């Protein structure tokens, strides 16, 4: 429920059974009576509650749809009923009567009232409450209803994003009317495909958390208090009185043949009493709010008695009944017993290996080649193993085959031993939770509404008691520092916070093996560091075996015990981090660019620069020490050549945004607060910022697929704009990659040759017959980029185009963007990869607090930052002045190597 600033919303604290009883009875009584007095009373009560919960403006926007529906019901009843005695006029031979119009009005009002009660309940309820009420008796039905309650709003929201993405890609503002029907049909297809993929990812998360399970329990976080009991008694009493009113005819009203009250109804005094009681019953939520207000007022008054010191709690000096506490403790001990998962995992597995794969092969149905081909690898217990390799090399498939319940459909051969047992032993829900799994997309693996229930979901599947669940939640939330999140809705969290929640919800089940599939791909640099810090603590302090797949490995490589390089479904190399680095450098492997810059810097300065038993520096700290120990580097000429234009401020402005304000909901905070930005012709402008800072929103507004609430946007005349969303699925609607790229052939006047060329340029030719959703994350990104480039835009907006791309593919994409820039194309790019953008961008801007801050040329921007800056600058700050990019750093250390070779 969205709270309104300055109001004390107490409805969420009310027990779910009381809320359900109240709203369900209000709906039933609204449907049973057509008495105008009762209908109007119910209608006004529903309106008042909706205004209180979400504001008058949002409700009025809903009435734009409600009122036409109401008028349609009135008109239909008047034209097709013909009942009644008071004829107003004839429509042909059919009479239109006053009674039929009034009855239609009452029927329409009844429908509006029901819709309003549904809206109010949706604001105060959640999937957690449904599961709390019916989770024990109807676990499957309650979970299904709870997920529907969560996913329907999410699907609607994503539908809006899909529409914006399609408009941004196609320039829908100029779309002819004859094409709009096809556009909306295509958008529906995209949304349906996304929903299916989202449901698939969610089902993977559910299976990883032990669902379905015969042991499933329902964790009841809501305690049934004496106040809830009084509320239930009050509501039941009101329901009984209203039933008596129906039985005695108090609610009766006659529309046909004339408008009148029946003659045998109770006297006026009883009718008025029933109506007043009905009003008291309908306005019950406001009594709760009033009691909350009084309680808060008492607290504030009590605080003044303590000399201005704030003290919390109403019963500060209340004596504790130790006998009751002791009795409760004994009950907890007897209830917890030795149930499944009620104690910490004991060390009963194989003493050395967490998992062992031998000659493992896997092929997806209908695939021409194997995703895994004769793969053999083992993972030591308590180790942290890093999986690396190009996009589509089999990393995700390998991770999912390590968990039997997550293994995809297909042909699987070979041996899988998990913790000393055959993989088949981990197919049951009880054993499946010993293998945790965290995916790339933070949103798709969230199951329930609130943080506390997301954490508790896997524990419920294990059948743990309330006491055990509470202990686990308290322990895990304290360990991860998320105790103050517990009552928050998951939708209110940022991307980085959601991923930390996903990690915590996997580890709360105390797994022995944790699998992570590119969990930091969508995180900004600060959130990435925080997530990695949490992961390191888990490995160090709990000894959990961790296997993680990542493309950007600078931060995690120094912590890895072992690195496995996958190529074409096989393990090409598997050894320590130092051996991995040395192998890539000595073999001149193309993946050499993936290793930390500090190691490549040391290698570029000469083999003699290695110290400490042939170990190269892997961290920024070690790299800085390496530079400080070699004064001959820092004593060289500090001048660096900058090949970028000297002055970009004289360029032609092709896009200008002035004082842009935007928020998604009336009562929500502003995402953009007076943002202003100028884009010059032919430049590549990078927009940086943290997760949730509003970067994507600004891009949608610049593409005009999302209107700003205030501000102006000016674009060059006849400017063709294309924007590529960070989620490539938002633009896919065909069955093959080839059909996807040929989709807009007529609209943008390109042919098969153009498609073949762009596929060759992006290395997509071998994927032409694959379904877009069957591609890896990086392959999806490249396919979506190819589709955007085929629209031949003058201004190209790219939102996280490198997400899911391996380092080699990022270099290839950088070369393509450089070529596009040379042709004069103007580009705006959002990314979290600062090293990538430093090689390409002409200017950078930082989006913070709704404003565009610090727009500056690339060198000036990064040289002035300490945290949001490139790896090269962090390595050389205060040691080698003026170094920003990787190329500049390597060019500074190579002359040292040449001098040593000449001296030798």
Describe, in plain words, how this protein is organized in 3D:
Helix content is 47%, strand content 14%. It is built from 31 helices and 21 strands. Helix 6 packs antiparallel against helix 7 and helix 14 (451-461) packs parallel to helix 16 (495-507). The chain is globular and about 105 Å long. With 904 residues, the protein is of the alpha/beta class.
Number of helices: 31
Q: Which class of secondary structure composition applies to the elements?
A: alpha/beta
Report the count of strand segments: 21
Poorly predicted residue ranges = 1-9, 307-325, 331-350, 637-648
Q: What is the average per-residue confidence, as pLDDT, rounded to a whole number? A: 79
Instruction: Report how far the terminal alpha carbons are from each other.
Output: 74 Å
| Largest sheet: spatial strand order | 8-9-10-5-11-12
Query: Hey, roughly how much beta strand do the residues contain?
Result: 5-15%
Shape: globular
Helical residues, percent? 40-55%
Radius of gyration: 32 Å
């Amino acid at each position: 429920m969205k709270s309104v600033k300055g109001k004390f919303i107490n409805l969420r604290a009310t027990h779910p059974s009381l809320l359900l009883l109240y709203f369900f009875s209000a709906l039933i009584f609204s449907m049973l009576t057509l008495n105008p007095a009762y209908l109007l009373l119910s209608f006004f009560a529903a309106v008042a509650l909706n205004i209180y919960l979400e504001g008058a403006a949002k409700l009025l926007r809903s009435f734009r749809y409600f009122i036409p529906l109401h008028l349609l019901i009135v008109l239909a009843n008047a034209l097709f009923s013909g009942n009644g005695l008071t004829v107003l006029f004839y429509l042909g031979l059919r009479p239109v009567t006053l009674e039929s119009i009034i009855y239609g009005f009452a029927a329409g009002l009844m429908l509006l009232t029901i819709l309003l009660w549904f809206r109010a309940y949706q604001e105060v309820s959640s999937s957690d409450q449904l599961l709390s009420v019916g989770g024990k008796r109807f676990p499957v039905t309650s979970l299904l209803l709870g997920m529907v309650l969560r996913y329907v709003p999410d699907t609607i929201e994503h539908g809006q994003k899909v529409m914006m993405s399609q408009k941004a890609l196609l320039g829908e503002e100029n779309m002819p009317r004859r094409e709009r029907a096809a556009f909306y049909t295509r958008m529906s297809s995209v949304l349906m495909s996304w929903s299916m993929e989202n449901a698939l990812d969610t089902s993977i998360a559910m299976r990883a958390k032990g669902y379905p399970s015969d042991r499933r329990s329902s964790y009841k976080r809501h305690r049934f208090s004496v106040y809830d009991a009084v509320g239930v008694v009050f509501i039941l009493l009101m329901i009984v009185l209203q039933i008596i009113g129906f039985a005695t005819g108090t609610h009766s009203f006659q529309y046909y043949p004339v408008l009148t009250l029946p003659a045998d109804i109770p006297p006026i005094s009883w009718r008025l009493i029933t109506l007043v009681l009905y009003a008291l019953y309908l306005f019950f939520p406001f009594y709760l709010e009033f009691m909350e207000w009084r309680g808060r007022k008492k607290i504030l008054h009590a605080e003044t008695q303590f000399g201005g010191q704030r003290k919390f709690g109403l019963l500060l000096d209340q004596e504790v009944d130790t006998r009751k506490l002791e009795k409760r403790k004994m009950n907890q001990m007897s209830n917890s017993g030795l149930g499944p998962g009620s104690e910490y995992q004991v060390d009963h597995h194989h003493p050395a290996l967490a998992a062992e794969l031998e000659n493992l092969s896997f092929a997806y149905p209908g695939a021409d080649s194997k995703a895994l081909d004769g793969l053999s690898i083992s993972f030591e217990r308590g180790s942290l193993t890093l999986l690396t390799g190009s996009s589509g090399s089999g990393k995700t498939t390998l991770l999912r085959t390590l968990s039997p319940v997550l293994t995809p459909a297909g042909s699987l051969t070979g041996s899988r031993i998990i913790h000393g047992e055959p993989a088949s032993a981990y197919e049951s829900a009880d054993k499946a939770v010993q293998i945790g799994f965290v995916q790339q997309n933070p949103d798709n693996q969230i199951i329930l509404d609130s943080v506390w229930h997301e954490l508790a979901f896997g524990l419920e599947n294990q059948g743990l008691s309330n006491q055990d669940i509470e202990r686990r939640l308290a322990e895990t939330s304290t360990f991860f520092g998320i105790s103050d999140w517990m009552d928050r809705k998951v939708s209110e969290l940022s991307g980085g916070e959601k991923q930390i929640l996903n990690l915590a919800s996997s580890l709360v089940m105390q797994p022995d093996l944790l699998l992570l599939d590119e969990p930091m791909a969508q995180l900004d640099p600060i959130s990435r560091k925080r997530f990695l810090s949490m992961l390191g603590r888990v490995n160090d302090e709990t000894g959990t075996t961790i296997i993680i797949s990542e493309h950007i490995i600078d931060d995690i490589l120094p912590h890895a015990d072992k690195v496995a390089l996958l190529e074409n479904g096989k393990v090409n190399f598997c050894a320590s981090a130092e051996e991995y680095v040395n192998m890539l450098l000595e073999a001149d492997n193309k993946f050499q660019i993936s290793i930390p810059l500090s190691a490549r810097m040391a290698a570029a300065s000469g083999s003699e620069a290695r110290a400490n038993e042939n170990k190269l520096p892997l961290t920024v700290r070690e790299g800085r020490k390496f530079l400080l120990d070699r004064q001959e580097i820092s004593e060289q000429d500090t001048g660096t050549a900058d090949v970028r234009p000297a002055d970009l401020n004289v360029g032609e402005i092709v896009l200008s945004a002035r004082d842009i304000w935007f928020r998604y909901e009336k009562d929500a905070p502003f995402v953009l607060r007076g943002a202003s930005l100028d884009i010059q012709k032919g430049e590549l402008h990078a927009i940086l910022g943290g997760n949730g800072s509003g970067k994507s929103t600004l891009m949608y507004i610049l593409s005009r697929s999302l209107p700003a609430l205030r501000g102006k946007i000016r674009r060059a005349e006849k400017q063709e704009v294309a924007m590529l969303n960070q989620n490539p699925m938002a633009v896919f609607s065909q069955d093959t990659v080839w059909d996807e790229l040929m989709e807009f052939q007529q609209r943008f006047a390109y042919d098969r040759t153009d498609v073949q060329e762009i596929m060759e340029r992006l290395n997509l030719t071998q994927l032409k017959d694959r379904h877009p959703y069957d591609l890896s994350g990086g392959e999806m990104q490249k396919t979506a980029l190819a589709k955007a480039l085929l629209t031949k835009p003058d201004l190209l907006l790219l939102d996280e185009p490198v997400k899911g791309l391996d380092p080699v593919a990022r270099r290839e994409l950088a070369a393509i963007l450089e070529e596009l820039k040379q042709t004069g194309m103007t580009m705006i790019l959002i990314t979290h990869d600062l090293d990538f953008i430093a090689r390409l961008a002409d200017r950078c801007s930082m989006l913070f607090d709704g404003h565009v801050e610090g727009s500056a040329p690339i060198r000036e921007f990064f040289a002035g930052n300490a945290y949001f800056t490139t790896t090269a600058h962090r390595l050389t700050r205060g040691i080698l002045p003026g170094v920003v990019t990787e190329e500049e750093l390597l060019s500074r250390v190579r002359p040292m190597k040449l001098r040593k070779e000449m001296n030798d």
